[in-house]
Amino acid sequence: MIKFLGAAGTVTGSKHLTTAFGKNILIDCGLFQGLKELRLLNWEPLSIPASEIDIVLLTHGHLDHTGYLPKLVKEGFKGRILGTAPTLQITEIILSDSAKIQEEDTARANRMRYSKHHPALPLYGLDDVDDALKLFQPVPLAEWYHISQNIRCRFRYNGHIIGATFIELEIDGKLLVFSGDVGRINDPLLHDPERPERADILFIEATYGNRLHASEPPLDALAEIIKRCTDKRGTVIIPSFSVERTQLLMYLFWQLKKEGKLGSVPIYMDSPMGRSVLEVFNQNRDWHKLSSRDYTDMCSEVTCVGSMNDTLKLANDKHPKIIIAGSGMAAGGRVLTYFTKYLGDHNATIMLAGFQAEGTRGRALLEGAREIRLYGKYFTVRASIENLEGLSGHADQNGLSDWVSNLPYQPERIFIVHAENDGAVGLQSKLKEEYGWQSEIPALNDQTEVPLDL
Fold first, then answer.
1. Average pLDDT of 432-454?
2. Are residues 193 and 239 located together in one domain of the fold?
3. 145-148 and 136-138 strand pairing
4. Does 327 sit behind a cis peptide bond, omega within 30 degrees of 0 on the bond before it?
5. Of 29, 112, 306, 454, which sits most exposed with the smallest number of CB within 10 A?
């Protein structure tokens, strides 16, 4: 049996449950983000008791694939949590940050009394994260791991972010392939994703299933956006995903500096999690393209902001500057401090540099919102809003189609997941047009019987 506990009809909350030979195997354990009705799902119990799940396999460390783990453990899960070494390192960083933000946000809400819950409580805290970390078990890349006599799994390089993989789950000879998030070819930092050579049952993401990435080189587009803002003596604020996107932006700014296209405008990176992820890059050289010299030179061009007091000082500094700050969809993190100072500034620019899920502040800005709610108050938007396309870590429609091109035959079942409706329908049409393949778009909590253990 297969059950879709998340990332079905949405791009967040990835959780796919496979049951066979008496084992309950959960692929990813993500947090729902974005729309309030999605976020509320994080508080609902799973349709299977956590204590009955035997093992969790992680494709990569992003919050929408790992962020529910402390809650799962809190609810009684006691099995193993498997992922590649960098994935588990990234997951530890992300979960700790998530718990800290939740604890800080609920403390602020209780202090300022803007929550309808009395008292407001976090979904989980740092102690719950510590309990989850005790269950982590790193696995080598591309080697089979035996879950039981009839079930084994393998993690294969997938680009997207450092440590990311797609997962092959073999059950009594039948191969299930979970794409995770598929990366892009020719990424400046990461190697090209591998492609599966066989899949009896395929689960494929479709975040960009109905879109093609911009053909303009991102370096040129980035330089133009920065020039428009700095010509006004303004500040550029970039809400950025702390894993991969922040490091990619640092790399691109380093390139622009080398080419003399940024002048003397200072660049700041304000993300404690982003700094920690830089160290993961430093410790896992085989997973990316940066040489030791490149890594050092790149980091030397960007000033890392330390304490929250430093954040407040930088936010009040009116000199032109570029600030990369978490989080990528402006759901939380230090970027909100800068928003309180710069959303109403005609000379400032807010540059969005990645996918913005429904219900997030980033999506609202992208769609032209004139005011944004922060810390229980509304702030007028006067800053310029720019969308830098071409930086997404997800393959677009053509990239996803190419990713399955090595399959010698049509899988028995194809499930399109991790997408809003337009993305899922777009990829479904592409697979039909390109290969003549039929596919299915499951809804949240759908379950289907697949003969896995005959």
1. 90
2. no
3. unpaired
4. yes
5. 454
Cα gap 73→137, rounded to integer Å:
15
Q: How far apart are CA 56 and CA 69, in angstroms?
A: 9
Give the up-direction half-sphere exposure of residue 390: CA atoms within 13 A in the CB hemisphere. Answer: 15
Range of the domain at 47: 2-211+393-448
155, 98: one domain: yes
pTM of the full structure: 0.90
Give me the residue label for tokens 């080697």: 143
Token pair 């697949």: residue:
450
Q: 205 and 296: one domain?
A: no
| Residue range 234-259, pLDDT digits in tens | 999 999 988 999 999 999 999 999 99
